Structure formats: structure tokens, C-alpha cells
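Below: protein 1.
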Amino acid sequence: MSSLKLPPVGTGKAQIGGLVVGAVALLVAVILGFAGHAEGFFQSYLFTYLFWLGISLGSLVLLFIVHLAGGSWGALISRPLEAAAGAVPLFALLFLPIVFGMRDLYPWTDAAYVAAEPTVAAKTAYLNTAFFIVRAVIIFAVFTLGAFLYRRLGKRQDDDSATSARTGYRMKNLGGLWVVVYILTMTFAAFDWAMSVTPTWFSGIYPGIIMASQVISALAVVILVMVNLARVNPTIDKLLTPKRLQDLGNLLMAVTMFWAYTQISQLIIQWSNNVVETATWYTLRLGPEWVGLSAFLLFFGFFAPFMILFSRWVKRTRRALSVVAVWALVVQCLNYYWFLVPAFGRAGFQVSLLDVLLLVGLGGIWVAVYARALAARNVVPANDPRLLKVVEHHA
């Protein structure tokens, strides 16, 4: 059985460009932060950080899922997913500004606020600075372990054709356990890093929305990456058939449906409670200052892409599906903004210079790290039986 050894992917320009643009944007953002905009810096940093981290974490859980599901479409995207998940250790380091900015981000760090809010005072055994940091360390340790384990097993599968099938079965067997670990770990991460900016409010569905958003973002990125790789690599061009592209489009549509379902379910449950403490989160976002963005997310974040993805032609056409993928990334970035920024008292949807700089800065660093990881390995599993069977049958 032959191997799918391919020439290294040329990502030098992406690495250098991402690093330079990202570093410059972050430097300017830090200078503005020290020049009297510290509070705005940390607020912008939080939502942009969670967006880019979400792509890596969504790629990590997708990696577990594609090994569980089997199929050549999953094998085809596994190496790009591994490369994206490999950025998790970097984002563990980039979490430090959030720790330094906790007083500007999380009201529960203010003793006077806690004393005035009985519902928050009842949560201090959980919501306290020391325990918050300990949980963050554990969360990143778990995610880093998962990313490292699957990247190491993937390398073993590439290097040893004799045991490639056995290694693939091991990744498949571990996938179910790691999906459960991801869900449990990400639940605490969503509670801590995002939902606790409004500590008087709670929703058990909230982490599910964040997880769905991560998977949508990761799927959108991997679609764009595979389409661009197919343009420069004849082997990937042959492997990325309309049928496999349609599989990716179907999955994107399914997760978008789940994301919308959880959003609407949370709204119905919270609003039907008719309790001030639970309704205020939506009262703010459906009020006059934020209703425009809320309506945009409803109609152009869900209904429009959902209806477009019903088209078989769109899902089987590279350029059309790429446009939908870019749009999905824009929507999910705005969704993080909508989830977090209203809690900081900003008067409506106003994109600040710090928002743009930090989005570009963290994005540039992420792209540089991702491009380096993608070029360091064979861009498709060289000895994965799922792909080798396809090549042998000229699919």
C-alpha cells in the first residue's frame, strides 16, 4: 500500500506576514492601553482572545469527532485540525493579560460589588481570584494534553506505515472520551471566562452556545484552508471532491442549526422565567442600543446562511462554500462581541480602534503559529487507511 507523502506546504509568507502584522497591531494596542485606555484594552482583549482561542478549541473537538466518525472526509482535514489545535499552549500564555485585567473585566473581583449583590456573594466560594486562576491552569493543561496526544499519534501514523491502522483505531477509541472531557472542561471555561462578566446571571445553555460557536469557526477555517491547499497541490485537489466538500458543508449547516437552536432555547427559557435577574441579560441586548446587532445575528447569522447551505450547489462549489465560511467567521466574531461587550456598559454597537487592533493582532499571531504547524507535517495523513483506500480506488 503506497503512502501519501506530499511536498511541504509553503507557508513562509503567512508565517512572516502574520507575525509582523500581529506584533505591530498588538504593540500599538498595548501603547494605547498604557496611554489611558486600560479598561477598554482588557475588554477588547477578552472578546478577541475568546474568538481566536475558540478556533483552536473547536478544531480540537472536531479532531476527536472526525476520528470517531471515520470517513475519508474526516481523514482529509485531520492534519489542518491538528495544526490549529496546536496553538492552545500559546493561548495559555496569552491568557495572562486576562489575569492582569480581572478587575476591569469581572465585577465579582470588587468586594464592594459583592457586598451589594447577595446572589454574587453566595458564589464567592467559586468566584474568587485564586480559584479562577487554578481552574484556568487545569483547563489549559487538559486542552494542551489533548492537542499534544493527537498530534503525537498523528506523527506516529505518518512515520510507521506498519502500525498506521492500529494507531488510527487508538485515536478513534480515545475520541469519545476526549469529547466528554472537552464538554466538561469547556463548560467551566465558558462559565469562568465569559459568563462571569455578568455574575448576577446564569444559564446552563450558555456553554453549549460557546462550544457550537467554536466548532462553526473551526469548520469555516478548515474549509478555507482545504480550498486554498487544493489550488496549489494536485493531490489535495483530487481528494477534495465535490462529495467531500458537501460533507463539510452539511456539517457546517448542522452545527449552525444547533447554534441557533441553543440561542433560541436560552432566550425562551430565560424570558419565560419572568424574573428580573434572568431577564436583564436579554433586556439589555434586545433594548434600543443593541437590538440592531441582535436582529443582524438572527437574520444574517442564522436564517441567511442556513437557507444558502440548503443548496447542494453551494456545498459542492469551492468558491461559494468559501464565501459562506468567511461569513460564518464574521458572524461568530460578532456573536462574541454581542455576548460580552454589552456587559461592559458600551453604548450600543461601536467598534473601537482597540477592538480592531487586538482582533488583527491576536489573529496575526494565530495565523503565524498555525501556518508554521501546518508546514511542519505532511498536510494529509500519509498512511491513514481511510485515505489510502480512496487513492487506490481513484476516488
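Below: protein 2.
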Amino acid sequence: MVIVEVVFVYPGMGQLLVDSVAKRDFTIMQTACLLFAATYILFNLASDLISIASNPRLLHRK
């Protein structure tokens, strides 16, 4: 993510996280990590729900 932001000169969350680590700004580091983790969890939940909705055999165990 940081590489894409640096190559295309597009400021984003990855660059914010790297800058906050360099400046030792712990509150921004924690917030950025929390947002990354929440996004990861929500995308995994959405993919699980979509796979269950598209394949009804996943609803019931054998």
C-alpha cells in the first residue's frame, strides 16, 4: 500500500502510518492499525456471508 502511495504521489493511510512510526506518534499509529484491522475483519465477514448466500450447502453441517 505504501509503495503505491509513494509511486503515484497519493497520500493515504499507509503513508500516514509510516510517518507516525517515524515521528513516534502512538495515537495515530494505534488509530491507523485499528482501522486496518477493522477493515480486514469486515471484508472477511462480507466474503463469508457472500459465500454462504451463493452456496446454500454451507448453511448446514453434515
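The chain has one domain: 2-54.
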